[in-house]
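USER: I would love a firmer grasp of how sequence relates to backbone shape in proteins. This is the protein in question:
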Amino acid sequence: MRSALRSLVLVSLAAVSMLLALPGTASAAPASGGYDVSYPQCGTSLPRDRAFAVVGVNGGLSTRANSCLAAQLTWAWGSSGAVLSQPRAQLYLNTANPGEVRTQVTTWPKTGSTPYGACDGSNSDACSWEYGWERAQNSVVSYFTPAARAASVDGRPSSYTWWLDVETMNTWQSGSTAALSRNRATLEGMTTFLTSQGGRVGLYSTGQQWTQIVGTVPVGSPLAGRDSWLAGATSPSGAQTACRKAPLVPGGRVTLGQYVQGGLDRDLSCV
């Protein structure tokens, strides 16, 4: 999460006080709230007092690893678990679709069998889906699993919620309904791989960015019914407001609200 949603996360982390709330309500206290971290926090001191944590597997792009993932996974599993509705350790993946500039990247697929037909290397729904599948597979197999082993923590994908980080600062197709369909196919490919491994998949964005990148999600899409983690707030009250907003996809629910305060990415449970 490296875009404007997270523009304040590059400073050193330090624990600060937040508001207390009753169990089962949206809470912003360190003891009953969470944080999310990734490669910008490498080498910094992470907050001690947290109920849950979300760790970025990638280093800003889906093709890069978070170099301190092992240490951050260990930190995440040390969360208190005080919010029973939120797993102590969760993960997120960077997402993108460079189909319009595929000649400039080496990771665009040339083959693959998908729900949209065969991928032939073109800028199509099929190759977009395959791209998403491959990027999720690489993130899990090449980045997450070795880091989990190094950290001596649970390395089973099925033990985690995997949030797909959807932001305009990454490379996406644009300008048409067909472009939105291809972007959506990429996220479907990622979702299908992660669920094939037993993982739970959620979606992170703002309503505006989601609409710009993905558009309307059909009820038959693998994205439908997924939980939403809404970004963009700058205070606990703003995150509470996000909890009451519409989810990103039909049949979904908003389960997390993110706000940035004091240089920290904080997360408030909506459920």
User: Anything to note?
Assistant: The chain has one domain: 4-269. The first strand starts at residue 34 and ends at 37.
